[in-house]
Design goal:
Layout: E1 9-12, H1 16-28, E2 37-43, E3 46-49, E4 56-59, E5 66-69, H2 78-90, H3 99-108, H4 114-123, H5 128-138, H6 155-162
Antiparallel strand pairs: 1-2, 1-5, 2-3, 3-4
Helix pairs in contact: 2-5
Length: about 160
């Protein structure tokens, strides 16, 4: 495996009942992927990840085992990597919301009311894949150019970007 560089994102599996529940949810919305979690590497062995208690900065060694890194999939210069790192660190403490999962499911089934989308966006809460997407968007390195609104991203969407 290539060593990650600051600003790269990682995709992981989550073990146990939580991982199985997330996998089942991803499957039900047509987003099956071998990963259930995403995080951003900020250098010096640390990552930023969204968790139910809020986004946190932790050592990579304490995170779930990495399945895939974005390393080498995007042509990022050091200024972009610095911006990605800065924005990831700035999001530490951002609240998490399980409602975002429901909003993503409604979007995938094409039945999400605009008020749900607007409410979810207005809260500023982020699940793991949304955090990665938001970091890249804020740094001026959009990951998706398919017309989706910011935050309509799952770990499976990130997986398909790098696989």
């Amino acid at each position: 495996m290539t060593e990650p560089l600051p600003g790269d994102f990682a995709l992981t599996t989550i073990r146990g009942i939580t991982g199985r529940a997330i996998s089942a949810g991803q499957y039900l919305i047509g987003d099956a992927a071998p990963v259930q979690h995403a995080m951003v590497y900020v250098g010096r062995g640390d990552i930023v990840q969204a968790m139910p208690g809020g986004a946190e900065l932790i050592p990579l060694e304490e995170a779930s085992p990495v399945v895939a890194w974005s390393t080498g999939h995007f042509d990022l210069d050091w200024a972009q990597r610095a911006a990605l790192t800065w924005h990831a660190l700035a999001l530490v403490g951002t609240p998490y919301s399980f409602l975002d999962f429901a909003s993503l499911a409604l979007e995938r089934f094409h039945v999400r009311p605009r008020w749900v989308r607007d409410y979810v966006q207005s809260t500023g809460h982020l699940i793991c894949s949304q955090l990665v997407d938001e970091v890249y968007r804020r740094a001026g390195v959009p990951l998706f150019d398919d017309g989706r609104i910011p935050g309509d991203v799952t770990p499976g969407d990130l997986w398909r970007l790098i696989k």
